[in-house]
Amino acid sequence: MTEWRGKALAQFPELRELVERESWSCHVFLFELRHLAMEAHRTADTEALTRVYDFARWCLEQPGQFLSNAAVVSFYVHVFDDWELRHEVVRWVPARIAERVRPLWEWRLSSERLAEVDRLLAAPTPPECTPPGGVG
């Protein structure tokens, strides 16, 4: 079993069927996790959000390019696709990750939306809004 699958099974036992699909790459799994994150944002499920964003960050921080690139192009580049959730999402995207993904947001978001994301990322996060573990 690949390392990402083992990590995914540990963090998402409820998604065992998806993790064990041999035809699925980490790219596909991360894109599916984005859907889980958006639903968790809608329901204020901090526990699920913590697991999802921790996994995406773990992938991004792995040596080599495969998992890191998968996290960028299959997860982080899409976090603002559900625009109405931008205020919730921005609290879960650390500055170091935003800097890395921003060139792709420039390509995907309108200039108005990118300016709004920049403004939200630059605003101080009140302590009561910081995700567990200080991700924000």
Automatic annotation (TrEMBL):
The protein's name: DUF7674 domain-containing protein
Pfam families xrefs: DUF7674 (PF24722)
Domain DUF7674, residue spans: 9-105
InterPro entries hit by this protein: DUF7674 (IPR056091)
